[in-house]
Design a protein that fits this description.
It contains 12 helices and 21 strands. By secondary structure, the protein is of the alpha/beta class. It is globular, with a radius of gyration of 23 Å.
Length: about 425
């Protein structure tokens, strides 16, 4: 069953009509499919079952507790990049032994908290970070397990703002520095080297970059072993893309798993993969309502109640998302610029998009919004964060409420001088 599809002319999430949810919670709102998320996780786990693999959900893609808990119940670990995400993963039921801490700027407070929880390992991104972890571990009488994130200088062919594996990107340790850094780690107290890590980017639509990067890491892991380093874990990061439209097709998860097997399967290591978008991206939609339509002569505008503060990807990344009306319609089609109410020209979801002629009050659905939607939202223009809803079969429930204006404004504290 398609998680999101028209049934009897109405758009549904699983077996729930989107209009039914809109009537209950108002618009705009995010809607996620439990079935879609669990099916994606199961497909990936099944493809990797011949390997000693751990699927660690990249929490940054969507950090709603209900979704993390769904994946925890399936056996997933977590890839986190902040203390907040680590706390979310723990509270959602993911054991610390299945949590890896990534990110380029771990603070001392975050390192202390992660060590206190005894997480699986840190993915270390710099020599200064290594020394900070060592000093903190010694002070707390702990041992920090670490893998070093390697920058393989490989172009993943993705958008420049989500490329992470090239030498000019801020991520990881240059290949030319790897041997020196691993030697340093052997001499530092409180440090136990356990592996090698990499992540070359997000929304990667071909397997070539993965094969090139994983082959390079396999060679490096063997060389490090030969030099006496204990390499028991290969962390491959995430990045496998999803289909945002019908013109671009992402590789199958089975073909991706075959690349993993081919490149690193012979190393007898624990293999960690860190999918985020791949698990939840197409398992969510953003639903809005048409407020007004207007034309300036050359352009027809469809003005909806969702805005760039609710869903930043189109404005930030020029991201393409399929956009449809709530009703399947035989009405004549029109070309619309689909825009929101925020006072920014960048508050645009699509330009010259063909849709059946729409009227104020009708619902509109932005597909593929399950990843990097709600987590990147803000209350810009003092617009409340939108609610999130989870659908399971013919039932749905709110998993994040829409805040009221009083609670938003009450976050501000009247000024008093601090002496």
């Amino acid at each position: 069953m398609d998680a999101f599809a028209y049934r009897d002319g109405r758009y549904h999430a699983e077996n729930v009509a989107i209009r039914r949810i809109a009537d209950a919670v108002g618009t705009p709102f995010y809607c996620y499919s439990r079935t879609a998320i669990e099916a994606r996780y199961d497909a990936l786990a099944e493809s990797l079952k011949g390997l000693d693999a751990l699927v660690c959900y990249a929490v940054k893609a969507n950090s709603n507790q209900a979704l993390i808990r769904l994946l925890a119940d399936r056996g997933a670990g977590a890839d986190v990049v902040s203390e907040g995400e680590l706390r979310r993963a723990l509270l959602a039921g993911i054991p610390a032994s299945k949590i890896v801490f990534s990110g380029v700027a771990k603070t001392l407070r975050e390192i202390e908290f992660a060590l206190a929880q005894d997480i699986r390992h840190f993915n270390v991104e710099s020599e200064q970070e290594l020394h900070a972890i060592s000093a903190t571990a010694v002070r707390l009488d702990k041992t920090a397990r670490v893998a070093f994130r390697i920058n393989p200088d490989i172009d993943a062919g993705t958008h420049e703002k989500i490329s992470t594996g090239k030498s000019e990107n801020k991520f990881g340790i240059a290949v030319t520095r790897v041997e020196s850094v691993y030697r340093q780690a052997l001499e530092l107290p409180g440090i136990e080297v356990c592996g090698v890590d990499l992540h070359i980017g997000s929304q990667i639509m071909t397997l070539g970059p993965f094969e090139a990067a994983y082959s390079r890491v396999a060679e490096l892991a063997q060389a490090l072993r030969d030099a006496g380093h204990g390499i028991s874990t290969i962390d491959l990061g995430g990045g496998l893309g999803i289909d945002y439209d019908e013109e671009h097709t992402a590789p199958s998860v089975a073909d991706y798993a075959a690349v993993v097997e081919k490149t690193v399967g012979h190393l007898s290591c624990k293999i960690i993969v860190e999918p985020g978008r791949w698990l939840v991206g197409n398992a969510g939609v953003l639903v809005g309502r048409v407020i007004y339509t207007k034309s300036n002569g050359s352009t027809n505008f469809l003005i909806i109640d969702a805005a760039m503060n609710d869903f930043l990807r189109p404005s930030m990344y020029d991201a393409h998302h399929t956009i449809v009306g709530e009703q399947s319609s035989a009405a004549p089609e029109k070309l619309y610029d689909i825009v929101g109410p925020v006072c920014e020209t960048g508050d645009t979801f699509a330009r010259k998009r063909k849709l059946p002629a729409m009227e104020p009050g009708e619902l509109i659905v932005i597909e593929g919004a399950g990843a990097y939607g709600s987590v990147m939202a803000s209350s810009y223009n003092t617009r409340p964060l939108v609610p999130e809803v989870l659908v399971d079969g013919d039932e749905f429930g709110i998993i994040r409420e829409r805040p009221d204006y009083d609670s938003i404004i009450a976050l501000d504290i009247p000024w008093t001088a601090t002496r």
